[in-house]
Design goal:
The chain is of the alpha+beta class. It has six helices and nine strands, in the order H-E-H-E-E-H-E-E-H-E-E-H-E-E-H.
Length: 189
């Protein structure tokens, strides 16, 4: 009963978030934050849905802080982790990795599922769209990835979906700009 109540709560929260995004009511409360702290918070929050998956975390040590809304960014990570657990078989690993690339920071969530069908890649972030597998659609509302894209874009970042090249599975990549004030601090030090 508790699990179903939590699932219903997530469903209603997704509907409200999508309504806010479409009406332009999402205004990120952005400030400088350490990605590692938010990744840890998202993993703690997702621990119940990830019990059948291993978690690998490889965060670059020299990452600068990024200007994000921690609540919105944690929701994005939760949505990506939830998605990974739905589409990857039990016993497989979900990997989170980050790096710095010039004036941006990248973060990926990788799973070991079957990947995203090529026909679904261009629609994966569309509202109410769910990837199909054979003759059925996985459980979900099709809002999590649309909300994730809206939140990331509201924080001046990008999010993309692709299939892994090293093995089967999906990879979601978030790119966030490094604020210029942080760049100046890095070069002055």
């Amino acid at each position: 009963i508790i699990d179903e109540a939590e699932r219903l709560n997530r469903f209603i929260a997704n509907l409200l978030d999508m309504t806010k995004l479409e009406s332009g009511a999402i205004m990120p409360n952005a400030a400088l934050h350490d990605l590692g702290e938010i990744v840890g918070s998202a993993l703690r929050r997702a621990s119940k849905i990830m019990v059948q998956h291993g978690v690998e975390v490889d965060l670059a040590q020299d990452l600068p802080m990024v200007e994000i809304d921690p609540v919105l960014f944690e929701q994005v990570l939760f949505n990506l982790l939830d998605n990974a657990t739905k589409y990857a078989p039990a016993g497989t690993a979900v990997r989170i990795q980050s790096w710095r690339d010039g004036d941006s920071v990248g973060l990926q969530v990788l799973d070991e599922g079957e990947g995203i069908p090529p026909d679904d890649l261009e629609h994966i972030f569309d509202k109410f769209y769910r990837a199909r597998k054979a003759d059925h659609v996985r459980a979900g509302t099709g809002l999590g990835l649309a909300i994730s894209r809206g939140f990331i874009e509201a924080m001046h970042g990008t999010i993309t979906a692709a299939n892994r090249v090293d093995r089967t599975g999906a990879v979601f990549t978030i790119t966030l700009p490094i604020p210029t004030k942080i760049e100046h601090l890095d070069t002055a030090a």
